[in-house]
């Protein structure tokens, strides 16, 4: 009877597979192939522009826009003590905003770096926007501001009685002060960012000599990228973002998404665009899109780098990626029609915003990665009626990986880990994209990324994959990852025993990656601990 029962089950599965599973899976395959082609074309265009136009032809920002050193600085004068003939008035007024929330580990670093910026002291104001809820931390931050004020630094410590709007609300409130409205430009730095002293001297001339530019964005540099394997992978992804996405957008369209920090804005552009809005968790991208629709230009300057910190725990990284992905999709939902009907920009720029900037990169990319590599390919191993063309299974993913590797030559040995890790993260990004697109209950969740500050300089001897103690492991078990791992193991084992696709080699590796992250064997136990 046992063989008969097994034959019955096999026959039933074959019938179900042919009538229901195969047609649906075949549709998913062709949808994935279509999205893969869209993503490949987009990645190829961005890579070509950033590599050929910017690198090979050397069309650097200084050659495309007027840049001259500030008066006084060009003559070798002391900028912070200009001669009486100039009195520093050639320098525009700059407001430096530092929004923070319970930033005990890094508040001294960011405030100290901002106060050390080279600029005439009567033409710069440091504004610390403290939304901290911990009274001890608030007192420490206030004392730090008072200490710098005693050194004749014009620094303002501003607090609110609520956290409405989170970062956007704090920045908006900060601009309402009279002294803020008297400034020409605003430099924004998150609490873990440490600009070099000459940051304003390098960025502000672009704004001074080019009135059409609203924003100058600098590149991020990471002080803790070598703490663990997860931070090294993050660096690869973010380096690609800056070297390819931001650089190509700046060169081709004079538009890209503001990164929320390490940038200098023209105050009049912010005001004309409607100021800061807290309707999504990507207030920086929101402002950038609205300013772009007003005709303002953006400039990315990759040679200017600002030190910052990467999230070193898997939990913190998940929260950060949810906020970024969900917010972008939610903004697309809220601004799509406004972009399409806008009469102030060309059809070409509308196409770039709607299709390239939002649809392909913010919607298609997170959905495709999870759908194809974590659902369609594993399931097709159990459905022999469905085959995936080799060009979609091998050629397109390989081409996209090569384009990433070209811009990260020093991280070639980490590419396999990057692929597996990004596929695991695609589950969270897809869920976040759908949450923002459908505007469900968690669309506006905001969790501040944990930071460690000076601790990153300590030698923690953190291994690439750090195991946890038994007492800590229960708090670091992630059920979604483990559930996907089980699904992948079933698909891989079925293909190994019954199938003929030989997909099981890849599927087993991907299942292992889900297990590793599901049990918390990645990142650090606490930030950089």
Low-confidence stretches: 459-465
Spatial sequence of strands, sheet with the most strands: 3-2-1-4-6-5-7
Helical fraction equals 40-55%
- Number of separate strands: 7
The overall pLDDT, averaged over residues, is: 89
Count of runs of 4 or more consecutive helical residues: 17
Briefly note the structural class of the backbone. Answer: alpha/beta
- State the shape: globular
Gap between N and C termini: 59 Å
Strand proportion: 5-15%
Radius of gyration over all CA atoms, rounded? 25 Å
Name the helix and strand elements from N-terminus to C-terminus, one letter apiece.
HHEHEHEHHEHEHEHHEHHHHHHH
Largest sheet: 7 strands, mixed
Give an account of the 3D structure.
Helix content is 55%, strand content 9%. It has 529 residues and is of the alpha/beta class. Helix 1 (2-56) crosses helix 8 and helix 11 (314-341) crosses helix 12.
Map the helices and strands.
Blueprint: H1 2-56, H2 61-64, E1 94-100, H3 107-115, E2 124-130, H4 135-149, E3 155-159, H5 166-175, H6 178-181, E4 185-188, H7 199-209, E5 213-222, H8 229-252, E6 263-266, H9 267-272, H10 283-293, E7 297-308, H11 314-341, H12 347-380, H13 390-406, H14 415-438, H15 470-473, H16 479-497, H17 504-518
Parallel strand pairs: 1-2, 1-4, 2-3, 5-7
Antiparallel strand pairs: 4-6, 5-6
Helix pairs in contact: 1-8, 1-12, 1-13, 3-4, 10-11, 11-12, 11-14, 12-14, 12-16, 14-17, 16-17
């Amino acid at each position: 009877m046992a063989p008969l029962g097994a034959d019955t089950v096999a026959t039933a599965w074959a019938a179900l597979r042919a009538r229901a599973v195969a047609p649906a899976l075949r549709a998913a395959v062709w949808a994935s192939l279509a999205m893969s082609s869209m993503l490949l074309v987009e990645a190829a265009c961005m890579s070509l522009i950033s590599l050929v136009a910017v690198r090979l032809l050397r069309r650097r920002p200084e050659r495309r826009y007027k840049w001259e050193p500030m008066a006084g600085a060009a003559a070798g004068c002391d900028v912070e003590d200009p001669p009486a003939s100039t009195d520093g008035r050639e320098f525009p007024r700059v407001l430096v905003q530092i929004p923070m929330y319970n930033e005990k580990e890094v508040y001294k670093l960011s405030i100290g770096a901002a106060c050390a910026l080279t600029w005439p002291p009567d033409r710069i104001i440091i504004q610390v926007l403290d939304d901290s809820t911990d009274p001890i931390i608030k007192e420490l931050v206030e004392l730090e501001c008072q200490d710098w004020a005693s050194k004749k630094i014009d620094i303002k410590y501003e607090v609110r009685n609520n956290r409405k709007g989170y970062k956007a609300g704090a920045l908006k409130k900060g601009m309402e002060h009279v002294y803020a409205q008297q400034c020409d430009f605003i430099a924004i730095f998150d609490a873990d960012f440490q600009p070099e002293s000459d940051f304003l001297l390098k960025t502000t001339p672009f704004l001074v000599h080019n009135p059409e530019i609203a924003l100058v964005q600098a590149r991020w540099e990471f002080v803790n990228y070598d703490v663990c394997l997860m931070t090294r992978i993050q660096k690869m992804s973010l380096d690609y973002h800056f070297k390819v996405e931001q650089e190509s957008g700046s060169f081709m369209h004079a538009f890209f998404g503001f990164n929320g920090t390490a940038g200098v804005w023209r105050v009049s552009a912010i005001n004309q665009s409607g100021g800061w809005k807290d309707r999504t968790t990507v207030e920086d991208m929101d402002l950038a899109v609205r300013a772009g629709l007003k005709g303002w230009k953006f400039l990315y300057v990759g040679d200017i780098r600002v030190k910052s910190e990467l999230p070193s725990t898997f939990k913190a990284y998940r929260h950060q990626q949810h906020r970024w992905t969900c917010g972008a999709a939610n903004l697309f939902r809220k601004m799509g029609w406004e972009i399409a009907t806008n009469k102030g920009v060309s059809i070409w720029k509308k196409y770039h915003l709607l299709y390239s900037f939002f649809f392909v990169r913010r919607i298609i990319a997170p959905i495709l990665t999870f759908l194809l590599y974590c659902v369609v390919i594993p399931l097709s191993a159990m459905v022999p009626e469905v085959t995936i063309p080799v060009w979609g299974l091998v050629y397109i993913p390989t081409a996209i990986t090569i384009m990433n590797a070209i811009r990260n030559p020093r991280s070639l040995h980490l590419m396999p880990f990057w692929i597996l890790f990004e596929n695991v993260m695609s589950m969270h990004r897809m869920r976040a994209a759908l949450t923002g697109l459908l505007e469900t209950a968690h669309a506006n969740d905001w969790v501040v990324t944990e930071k460690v500050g000076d601790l990153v300089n300590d030698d923690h001897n953190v291994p690439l994959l750090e195991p946890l103690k038994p007492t800590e492991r229960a708090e670091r078990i992630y059920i979604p990852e483990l559930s996907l791992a089980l699904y992948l193991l079933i698909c891989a084992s079925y293909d190994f025993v019954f199938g003929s696709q030989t997909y099981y080699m890849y599927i087993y590796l991907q299942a292992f990656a889900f297990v590793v992250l599901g049990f918390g064997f990645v990142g650090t136990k606490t930030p950089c601990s």
